[in-house]
Structure prediction request, 101 residues.
Amino acid sequence: MTLPSLLLVLGVALGAVGAASAELSCADAARVGARALARGEHHDRVRALALSAAPEGADVHLSEDGGMARVTVRAEPRLGPLAALPVEVDGSAAVPLEPGS
Prediction:
């Protein structure tokens, strides 16, 4: 009875660490994308840069409004090769547009 309980706790702990790691990766990817968008990079290039820093299977949303470049990256973290966690994590960043971009 003890071993299955310990395995369950270990699985939950690993899932929590995986979700936290994915959220940090989403935030980093959003910052990379927002800086590129603020510099005036093409949207396809910005999306590629953000996806290169994001967890696998992430979705990137770009917008420019009010003089700000905004990027949001969302992902569903995976627990191993077969199972996705039942949570969605995201990260967003906003950077002022550079003059002339």
